[in-house]
Amino acid sequence: MGKRVIFENLGRIRYKEALDYQEDLFEQLIREKLQKKEDKQHFLLFCEHEHVYTLGKSGDSRNLLITRSVCESRNIDLHSTGRGGDITYHGPGQLVAYPIIDLEDFQIGIKRYISMLEDVVIETLRPFGILGKKDAKAMGVWIHPVQSAKARKICAIGVRASRFVTMHGLALNVNSDLAYFDHINPCGFTDRGVTSMQKELGREVDFKAVSDEMKNAFTAVFGMMYSERDCPA
Questions:
Q1: What is the pLDDT of residues 92-142, one digit of tens each?
Q2: Annotated active-site residue in 47, 71, 187, 231
Q3: Does residue 47 carry a catalytic annotation?
Q4: How many domains does the chain have?
Q5: For 156-165, how does the pLDDT look when each residue is reduced to its tens digit (9 = 90+)?
Q6: What is the CATH number of the domain that holds 47?
């Protein structure tokens, strides 16, 4: 623990642009690991995306309930990805975090890593009076996960790892337009809903305040120490 991580806030960015940048950093870290460099660079990226549906490598395309042409007509991007999980939505008002780290340097395994990402979100929500919980049968952070009629997901998690180096991450609905979830079976579920911090609190939430809390939560849960740099042009 106590590893130094380069933090970058990419701001509002299209999914494909952020994915390409992630993959560059991911491949760089794997190269550094294979070279046994002692000063490997780990990264934590924050961003918001333009409207996009992403399908995980094990996802079912039937969980997209509208056609590709309808997505195009509504200016919604559509991408297949190498992460785990099924289909999800990203868009403005949603805080997305992409840790690109070597889990072996942090001395944790994949299963523990996903649990720690859930802990980050739970700790982020706590100061706002929202009680997020885990569900042993479904990744992510939930409100009332035990009761299907009340269960609603507030944060989706999907990761990819190679040689214990990670990419992709989590997406927390802050002030998200939840109507976009109506066109998918989120994460493959048909019997559970989605929610946002705005919906739970009945008011728009300060996005920067949530970002600051999440950054602090990564420090508390993972022991991250940050070096900040400007995002790429």
A1: 999 999 999 999 999 999 999 999 999 999 999 999 999 999 998 889 999
A2: 187
A3: no
A4: 1
A5: 999 999 999 9
A6: 3.30.930.10
